[in-house]
């Protein structure tokens, strides 16, 4: 009974955590450039207790590094980054973070931002876009415009997007959903053709698998709570037998 109680109790707690991660992935199935979060669990003996008492501990399982599908949009400010490349943005705390979200926009202050509002960083800092009749982002990340009221011959270069190379081992996801370099890791700048203009990368969340996983986790939680209830009923029945004795 002791072992069953610990298995049921700790298993239910970690199943809830796994369901939280799964639900977050499901909610971001349509988010541009989103990478599915992973969770891993392992059995850990409870120190100082009986050998039958085993706890379950969940840990960061990283994120799914596979790419999402590319969708043609034809929009000048939409970009898709090549595999392993990440766009540098400024997080809400002012730190440098990275994303693959390429649905760029120009806010009311003329600043280049992602679809979720993070300011985009260029090689020289935050990128501001002057009033322009057209804007173009080249394959190497160079941003150029035709100033408002002028012809194509007046095309001017504004700067270059800051794009870095990063692997799953070098990056970790923050609570805000943005990636950051792991402690002690310095990310190299991405060279060559790093972006494709007029395209967006979809989320790599597999909607069907995530839905099936949600149902499986719900059934697993129900089973674990049933184990705890049955263990409690057995304990009460054993107590009554002892009292009758």
Question: Would you write up a description of this structure?
Answer:
- The protein is of the alpha+beta class and 245 residues long.
- It has two domains: 2-65 and 205-244, no CATH class; 70-201, no CATH class.
- It is 26% helix and 31% strand.
- It has helices spanning 2-27, 207-244; strands at residues 37-45, 54-63, 70-72, 79-81, 85-90, 96-99, 105-106, 112-113, 121-122, 125-126, 132-137, 142-147, 156-160, 163-165, 171-173, 179-181, 195-197, 199-201.
- The strands form eight sheets. Strands 6-5-14 form a three-stranded antiparallel beta sheet, with no helix packed on it. The chain has a three-stranded antiparallel beta sheet with strand order 11-12-13, with no helix packed on it. Strands 1-2 form a two-stranded antiparallel ribbon.
- A hairpin with an 8-residue loop joins strand 12 (142-147) and strand 13 (156-160).
- Helix 1 (2-27) runs antiparallel to helix 2.
- InterPro entries: Flag_bb_rod_N, Flagellar_FlgE/F/G, Flg_bb/hook_C_dom, FlgE/F/G-like, LlgE_F_G-like_D1.
- One of its GO terms (biological process) is bacterial-type flagellum-dependent swarming motility.
What labels would you give this structure?
three-stranded antiparallel beta sheet, bacterial flagellum, elongated, alpha+beta, 245 residues, Flagellar_FlgE/F/G, 2 helices, Flag_bb_rod_N, 18 strands, 31% strand
